[in-house]
Amino acid sequence: MDFARILEFSGNHPVLILAFLGALGLLIFLEAGRRFSGMKSVGPIEAIQLNNREDAVFLDIRDEAEYRKGHIPDAIHIPLKQLPERVKELEKYRGNPVIACCRSGNRSTAAGSILAKHGFENVYNLDGGISAWQSANLPVNKK
């Protein structure tokens, strides 16, 4: 495809081009935020290994309705909006790895920033969130 045809297409479909550039910019922004947050990411299998080897704690930061649909067994549930006020509830786990999880892995980076501000150093993001956990056919509780 030559450059002239690309320019012609762009001129004929400006809304489509703007939508594409907006989506691309959002993707770059989200990925940069994830990489520069200082928070490590682990997949579901690595999270289980971290739990088994280092007694990691799962922190589910989704809202109540999402949590009831299915959550990781023994996960501590503190919705993201309440985390700054309730972070003291996690104090006894300060020496453990904390694996923050949400639906898809995006909101948990915000939880990682909050925990880091309160001195938690060993915080992980569950890459892909509970969706990846369920896709890996790992157990969930619906209580």
Helix and strand layout, with pairings?
Layout lengths: L2 H10 L1 H23 L3 E3 L1 H11 L2 E4 L3 H5 L7 E2 L5 H4 L11 E4 L6 H10 L5 E4 L2 H7 L8
Parallel strand pairs: 1-5, 2-3, 2-4, 4-5
Keywords: Membrane, Transferase, Transmembrane, Transmembrane helix
InterPro entries: GlpE_sulfurtransferase, Rhodanese-like_dom, Rhodanese-like_dom_sf
Protein name: Rhodanese-related sulfurtransferase
Detailed description of the structure:
- There is one protein chain.
- This protein has 143 residues and is α/β, with parallel strands linked by helices.
- The chain folds into two domains: 3-34; 38-135, Oxidized Rhodanese, domain 1 (3-Layer(aba) Sandwich).
- It is 49% helix and 12% strand.
- The chain contains seven helices and five strands, in the order H-H-E-H-E-H-E-H-E-H-E-H.
- The chain has a five-stranded parallel β-sheet with strand order 1-5-4-2-3.
- The longest helix is centred in the N-terminal third of the chain and has 23 residues, at 14-36.
- The chain crosses the membrane at residues 12-30.
